[in-house]
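Ops channel
N.P.: pipeline sanity check, posting one input/output pair.
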């Protein structure tokens, strides 16, 4: 799979199309750049560019496109990442321009939409295959989405052959999509680890009810634990996860029903909680039951009234409830832990879905 960064891939695409993509109406509408990257009238330069910026970027393009081509793009990658040797102001300007533009133009969201429409969004595949262990192979999936994604970015027929993108442009377009694919993989891995922790926490909260003393606080903990688990299951909604959620919800409803509330019970069979109806009835006062019902309504009932469609498009696709802020040079380099290393504690907590608490490492501060 090609390993060009999007900033480099956009230069290659510029070269393949002789700069024409910046004249395509759909791309112009998306980027707001109407007169191309290097207009004759400097008043028409991209926002924030000076005449010198345009000269520097154009020089960088010329040197980049003059490099020898090979399947691994080794020359281009080395040139784009070069930190020693001659200073190339155009390289930094271009990489920053694409990194900022990628977010401003919502490229990630459009790529997500194309993956979903083509049936190859990784989460869609997870749901269809009812498994989350094996990450889908980009080599087989991305080519199926290239036509759909290209139409969203550049417009129908931008490449001159109806809706079909020429095979010769696949090596240039695939790296653009691959960056989103890798981002999904990183955050999916985190999300699945978080899912396992939330499932364990929910089961532990149920199990705590089987150990005296049983308190209303423990029941409230069960409600919150089930709600947290179910929120993330909306993203990773495989059949197995949905069945687990239904079992948790059924047992929770039985508990509340036997406490004398208006919550209907799906089943009278004891599930994770082995408490008898008599124990539950005697557990709490009328005021306690009302307080528990308010918690149930806040966490369970109000949640039922919201959409439960899997969140598989938009900028917050990865976890359905959070977004990662990427460093400004993310589009110009191959990143791994560089993303995390540039985050402050607050941003890192958000990226890992610790919304209401700190990571264990920082919890004692």
């Amino acid at each position: 799979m090609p390993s060009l960064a999007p900033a480099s891939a956009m230069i290659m695409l510029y070269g393949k199309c002789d700069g024409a993509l910046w004249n395509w109406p759909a791309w112009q509408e998306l980027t707001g750049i109407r007169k191309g990257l290097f207009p004759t009238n400097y008043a028409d330069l991209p926002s924030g560019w000076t005449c010198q910026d345009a000269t520097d970027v154009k020089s960088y393009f010329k040197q980049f496109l003059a490099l020898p081509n090979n399947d691994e793009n080794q020359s281009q990658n080395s040139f784009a990442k070069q930190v020693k040797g001659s200073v190339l102001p155009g390289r930094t300007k271009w990489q920053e321009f694409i990194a900022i533009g990628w977010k401003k133009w919502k490229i990630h969201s459009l790529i997500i939409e194309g993956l979903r429409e083509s049936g190859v969004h990784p989460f869609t595949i997870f749901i269809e295959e009812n498994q989350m262990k094996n990450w889908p192979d980009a080599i087989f999936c991305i080519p199926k989405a290239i036509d759909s994604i290209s139409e969203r970015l550049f417009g129908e027929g931008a490449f001159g052959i109806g809706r079909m993108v020429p095979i010769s442009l696949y090596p240039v377009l695939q790296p653009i999509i691959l960056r989103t694919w890798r981002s999904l993989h990183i955050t999916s891995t985190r999300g699945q680890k978080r899912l396992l922790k939330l499932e364990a926490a929910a089961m532990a909260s149920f199990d705590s009810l089987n150990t005296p003393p049983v308190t209303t606080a423990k029941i409230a903990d069960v409600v919150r634990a089930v709600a947290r688990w179910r929120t993330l299951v909306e993203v990773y909604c495989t059949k197995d996860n949905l069945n687990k959620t239904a079992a948790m919800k059924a047992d929770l409803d039985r508990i509340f029903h036997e406490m004398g509330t208006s919550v209907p019970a799906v089943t009278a069979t004891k599930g994770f909680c082995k408490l008898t109806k008599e124990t539950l009835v005697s557990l709490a006062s009328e005021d306690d039951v009302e307080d528990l019902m308010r918690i149930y309504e806040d966490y369970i009932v109000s949640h039922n009234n919201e959409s439960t469609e899997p969140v598989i498009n938009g900028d917050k696709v990865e976890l359905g409830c959070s977004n990662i802020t990427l460093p400004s040079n993310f589009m110009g380099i191959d990143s791994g832990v560089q993303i995390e290393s540039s985050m402050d504690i607050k941003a890192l907590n958000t990226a890992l879905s610790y919304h209401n608490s700190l990571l264990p490492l920082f919890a004692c501060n």
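N.P.: looks fine end to end. The two ends are 43 Å apart (CA to CA).
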